[in-house]
Amino acid sequence: MSNYTQSDNFSLLSLILPKESVVTVSEAIGKAGASGIFEVAARGSVLNEGGFLQRMFPPPAPEQHLLQTLVPNDKVDAVTDAAVLAGNLNRMGAGAVFVIDCNDVRHTEKFPAPSPAVEDGNGSSGTYTADLEAICCICEIGIADDIAKAALQNGAPGPTVTFGEGGGVRDKIPLLRITKGPEKEFVWCVVDKNDADEIFADMARAGHISEPGRGFMYSIPVSSGIVNVSSVAATAAHGANMEQVIAAIDEIKGDKDWRATTAEATKSKAFKTNPLKNLIGLYCIVPRDNYSDVYDAILEAGAPGVSTNFGVMNDADAGDAEQAQNEEWALVYTSLSPANVDKVRDSVAKKIDEIGLDRAAFYTLPIPRALTYLGG
Amino acid sequence: MSAEQSSDQDKLRLTTQQKIGILCSFAKDKVVEQIQCVWFIILYLVVFQLLVLGLPIVYSLMIAVGIGIVIIGLAFFMEGLRLGLMPLGETLGSTLPRKKIFGIPCLPASLAFGFVLGVFATFAEPAIGVLRAAGSGVDPTLAPLLWTILNTGATNLVYSVGAGVGIAVLLGVLRFYKDWSLKPFIYVGVVVLSTFTLYFQFSDARLQHVLGLAWDCGAVTTGPVTVPLVLALGIGVCRIVSTGGSKNTGFGVVTLASLFPIFAVLCYATFLFETKDYYFATYSKADWHTIAIEKAKQEGDEKYGKNYDPDLQRFGDIVAKRKIDSAGGASESDMASSLSKVDLAEVQASLDDTGKLPTGYSLQTQIAGSSLDADPLDEEDNNSRSIVQPTSTNSIIVRDGVSTPDEVWDPGTEIMAALTNNFDFFPKIFRPEEDTNGNGELDEGEDIYSLDENGTVVYNKEGETYPHAVLNGPDQDRGAVEGALWAIVPLCSILLLVLVVGLKQPPKHYDELFIGIICAVIGMGLFNLGIALGLTPLGEQLGGNVVSSFAAIEPWAAEGFVDPMFSSSNLGKALAILFGFILGYGATLAEPALNALGSTVEKITVGAFKKSLLMQTVATGVAIGISTGVAKIAFNLDLWYLLIPPYMILMVITYFSSEDFVNFGWDSAGVTTGPITVPLVLAMGLGIGSKTGAIDGFGVLALASIGPIITVLIVGLIVRKKPKTDENEIITATEAV
Residue B737: closest CA among chain A residues belongs to which residue? Predict the structure, then answer.
């Protein structure tokens, strides 16, 4: 534990890109100073009109990748610029980049993160500052489409869905745990802060998140970013995709106020169960081979639930491979109350020491709002 | 999750009732899932036979029970795949490129492993056995080379197909390492195979007969165990070696594993042909036979198959003679209009008593002879209209209607034998004819392996006699459980061995793995049993009876005769083709290997391509393919011009398609014809073929494999048309607010 570098001057830079631009953009941000880029395969959203032919032959969704990397605060602007330039992120449908301030980052020496800022700097200088909120919903396989549809209908830009694994109570049941697989879907969307409440509520309703065993959702404040993801409208009526239509109307109207939902402003979209407030999300990045140890350690330390995303890191030490290979990493996440964060992190770090792993990183993010079944 | 953390460290204790509750709801979900796949084809088959053809279903209870067993077996099998086989394959695939086995560098080790996997998978699969069972109906007089390959050369057939699949998996793995596209392989493969096919078609009639078998071998090899394993292996490898925007995701090996066996069988046939090591059709009177003898005489031999083992030649002669003898029997129309002794007595008694025919018999008029009399109405004018009458007629008494067996269960089935095959685990591939009078001993005339100089039949080679040999010779067919064990256990053992001992990467949860393997074995055993009890009889009935749409037949297991449904034979054949279309669609949706492929595609593309898209597209393609196959048999068309032009069109479409759809599409072709489609289709092919004089029922499966490639690639071309983002508009970001 003593060889962990700790800093609170980092931000988590995330990118949502269509499959074609991943290579160019990751090279560009690598040159701009980012390293340790974690890549997860994902898909975008399709607005399915639901006719018979479309139900028999559902149109494919756009293939995307979600990239995440820890960037020191003084380099955030440069990296964001490089990403926007390389990926043409100013253009509709090209993707998204958003930056989240981290509370606390610790990583081992050998973990490929750029060196932290020497002096305390602020985050981005304001070019991309926006009032955004990132909503993430973890649910069973098959439900993600309903949740994404609910978000889309409330005006969220196309949600991105990734696969991963999750567990908690399930892992404590001997043998019978085979009756339910660990696979989960993660629905990500980055929305305007003004719309966030309603979108959160509707997504929760669509996925029945407040019922037992349905999943978990949370939102994280985003300090800056551009969100131009594409979603495909699968009808014959549209010649353009949804974003082009919305952008055109924006331009005609002159502002975005027309997007606000209609007359019944008094009808509250809030729901009966109260969300959890002010949690901390603890994230741990380790090589995939060792993720099960970390997973077990987190559960043993008392966390009620853990989820994992698997991806690759192309610029980590690849060892003595004969040819370029993907190195698989895992991002293990759990949300905790602020009092327990240190305890869990310490016990995981101890476990990492025990297994002799020399490449790992932890970071924590603020979670102002979360929702799940709260027990009865 | 509550705001206060619960630090429950112990394993959760569940009451027995809770455990049973969890298990029951889980089992119910899985079974319902399988019912959703299977209901369409079963309902269709039942409705077609009952309503369209108007024939009762024989042994209905046995078939119903068999189908129920199939559903349960499928549920177990898919669960076993999910828990055990596919994670094993994927872990292996993702570890092979990273760790060395005993110091051997990763690439050669992976290639060698791929080869071994391919070879073993072929031996494990029962599919070749199915083809050989169909091939036992081949007449050696009509197709000597084909008969040789299927009967006496069967061991070598399996070896050559195994080698083909092994090389295919090896090349598949190499393709991932080197990041090659699948398209060049397809172009080269299709061109080589087409040239070979055309050569076979036009060079010699003996070679021509082998074409159907060769193409069907390719369609049939990759079965429900090989496909998920090979897919999982490919996906695992690609996770590691596909870097930097490479398009490979792990598919494409199944395609190669379907193309190479065709080439291997064609090579094997050429080898036999050139070395003159095949049966000489002693009783043939065909043109090609005479021409071939001429050609052989020019080379100084008196017959063309001169290097064939003389014992086997005698065997072939005896089989041929048996077929000719049995073919000279009474024709079906004679049998339909004849009365047995018992019937005759009954009719006689009734006529004596009441002067009338008993119920169930009627008087019909039969035209005797073939001449007609025409009497002109106007006797002076020969061109006036005339009354036409047959010269002479007979009045005959015939039985009405068709009587089918009353039982609901086939008295001949032995479930235990079907399940276990009497625990005979090492079947010989070729064995002599057996105990026909069932007394357990080889009487004279029963075994036909060889004849000695006195003309006595002896069991073994010349010079040895075993007059009281007790027949306990092993069987070609495997029992259900035995087949399942053979298919799964050796493969899994090799995988585990390489993983644990060679790569030193043990799986995380051994208990899940073993439960998975056991579920897969149980599932496959039940599945095989259910198919033997339920689907095969149903398919045989339907396959045989569907011919009644265009020809007069005696329905399956019935006595009596039905007339064709339509007077125009072409209309009837059109109905048979429509039947084949819907059969192909329904049977494909039920195939376990296709289900596994669809789930894998959905997982790899993170849900971008839904499983139902692939399944519906492939099912439609197979439907088109099978209806074409039925047309081929019904109208007795040649295989090559139904096969080669579509492949040429496919090459053009492949050129324009994106890489991922090319991978999915060609793979789905290798995956389709599986344990549910094959019995149904083969039975139908044989039934129709016997009525239209086709030599064999082969070729339908090969055609059924082309259809899905075409439909998937076309769907790929349609969905790839993205709306264009306007290059000139740059809309600035949220700072406008």
Answer: A255
DSSP characters over A188-227:
EEEEEHHHHHHHHHHHHHHHTTTSTTSEEEEEEEEEEEEE
Determine the distance from the C-alpha atom of residue B80 to the mean position of all C-alpha atoms in its chain, rounded to a whole number.
23
- Tell me the one-letter amino acid at A132: L
| B732: closest chain A residue by CA | A90
Q: Measured between alpha carbons, how far is residue B332 from residues B33, B556, B635 in Å?
A: 45, 13, 22
Query: Do B1 and A305 lie within an 8 Å CB cutoff?
Result: yes
Can you tell me which residue has the tokens 């978990």?
A: A216
Q: How far is CA B576 from CA A189, B42, B568, B678, B685, in A?
A: 53, 17, 13, 17, 11
- Retrieve residue A75's tokens: 């380099």
d(CA B67, CA A126): 68
For residue B247, pLDDT over 90 is answered with no
The confidence score (pLDDT) of residue B569 equals 77
- Count of positions (residues) in chain A: 376
Number of H helices, E strands in chain B: 27, 6
Helix axes B677-692, B569-590, angle to 10 degrees: 170
Residue type, A64: Q
| Rounded distance between C-alpha atoms, residue B625 and residue B215, angstroms | 14
- Interface A-B, measured as beta-carbon pairs within 8 A, has a size of 148
Q: B290 exposed, middle or buried (CB, 10 Å; 0-12, 13-18, 19+)?
A: exposed
Q: Which residues of A touch B107 (CB under 8 A)?
A: 322
Nearest-angstrom CA–CA distance, B505 and B99: 9
A9 vs chain B: nearest CA distance in angstroms?
25
Nearest Cα neighbor of B703 from B257, B202, B252, B215 is B215
Cβ proximity of A283 and A364 under 8 Å? yes
> Which structure tokens are listed for B4?
């206060």
Rounded to two decimals, the ipTM of the complex is 0.84
Nearest to B608 among A61, A303, A375 (CB): A61
Under 8 Å between Cβ of B82 and B34: no
Note whether B717 and B657 are within 8 A (CB).
Answer: yes
Tell me how far CA of residue B524 lies from CA of A364, B134, B675, in angstroms: 49, 22, 11
Token digits for B223?
Answer: 């079965």
- Exposed / middle / buried, residue B451 (Cβ in 10 Å: 0-12, 13-18, 19+): middle
Q: B718 — contact with chain A (CB < 8 Å)? A: no
Cβ of B737 and A63 within 8 Å?
no
B246: amino acid identity, one letter: S
- The distance of Cα B444 from the centroid of its chain, to the nearest Å, equals 37
* Beta-bridge partners for B368: B392
The per-residue pLDDT for range B399-458, each reduced to its tens digit, is: 666 666 666 777 767 776 667 665 555 544 334 445 555 555 555 545 444 444 554 444
Q: To the nearest whole percent, how much of chain B has pLDDT over 90? A: 13
Q: What is the pLDDT of residues B269-317, one digit of tens each?
A: 999 888 888 888 877 777 788 888 888 888 877 777 777 777 677 777 7
Alpha carbons B4 and B142: distance in angstroms, whole number: 82
Alpha helices in B592-639 (DSSP H): 592-604, 611-634
CB contacts of A276 in chain B (<8 Å) are 1, 3
DSSP B675: T
Tell me if A314 and B2 make a contact (CB, 8 A cut-off): no
Q: Is the per-residue pLDDT at B467 higher than 80?
A: no
What is the mean pLDDT of the segment spanning A219-237? Answer: 75
Percent residues over pLDDT 70 in chain B: 78
B138 is written with which tokens? 């081949």
Round the CA-based radius of gyration of chain B to a whole number and report it.
30
Q: What is the pTM of this model?
A: 0.80
Res. A93 pLDDT band, cuts 50 70 90 = confident
How would you classify the pairing of strands B361-376 and A231-233?
A: unpaired
Q: At what angle do helices B226-241 and B106-124 cross, to 10 degrees?
A: 170
